[in-house]
Design goal:
119 residues; two-stranded antiparallel ribbon; 5 helices
């Protein structure tokens, strides 16, 4: 007789995290996904925002080879703008320097390089 708590070891216990906009796809352990998503769900206004933050955190974890739970521990206790700034910091570490997130001042190119751009 089977029970509700029976674990089927024939099935994969991972969650597929993907972002079709950035063409990002990775399998992560289900328990880690649940921990990260539930934290972001508790501090974010909507489930969609929490899902986007969760995908972004796992993307940063994969690119930097830092465990997702370690990154989450660094962000715990922050809410709102501080949490957004922390995630922007980590995302900027894996992005091109020409497309930084959360930067108000635009990058001014070198005068000689700017002259070479055709209009």
């Amino acid at each position: 007789m089977s029970t509700v708590n029976y674990t089927n070891y024939n099935k994969d216990l991972t969650v597929r995290v993907f972002d079709s906009f950035y063409n990002y796809d990775v399998n992560v352990p289900a328990d880690e996904y649940d921990i990260v998503y539930s934290y972001f769900r508790s501090v974010m206004a909507t489930a969609r925002i929490a899902g986007n933050f969760t995908v972004s955190l796992f993307r940063v974890a994969e690119e930097t080879n830092i465990p997702a739970l370690t990154l989450l521990d660094a962000m715990k206790g922050q809410t709102g703008l501080n949490l957004t700034a922390s995630l922007a910091y980590y995302l900027n570490s894996i992005r091109s320097r020409a497309t930084l997130l959360g930067i108000n001042a635009s990058t001014v190119p070198n005068q000689y390089a700017a002259r070479l751009v055709l209009q």
